[in-house]
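Schema walk-through. Below, the input block comes first and the output block second. Nothing else is stored per chain. Lengths vary across the set, and this one has 135 residues.
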Amino acid sequence: MKKVVLDTSVVVKWFSKEKGSREAKEYLRQFQQGKIDIFLPELVKYELANALLKGKNLSLPVARQAISLFYALPINFVAEEASMAKSSYKLAKELKITYYDACFLTLAGKLKAVLVTANPRHQRKIGGITKLEQL
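--- output ---
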């Protein structure tokens, strides 16, 4: 089965109506149909909640519902290990990206998974990554 790592720019689109939401929800649909496996670093839980709070400014009831739905999904959350942290730090330095963004790259590399991002700045910086899909 195809392994996919989604960065937070994709996951947040599951809970908003914006450019790329339809494509992001297609990954969720494929996951729910058992066509793909989604893996996310634990970090996404914090980034998603922050994006819903600061970026989307959702009301408390809507945010609670979105968070409940997200946590109810049987997604494979991966805890960061020391070796992954070191790899993420190295990638962040080399690519001049945030450590947070490098965590998604590191996880995709470790799992030999496809990384999906909706962030155009990162698409340019990580364009050399062979397994990258863009929304």
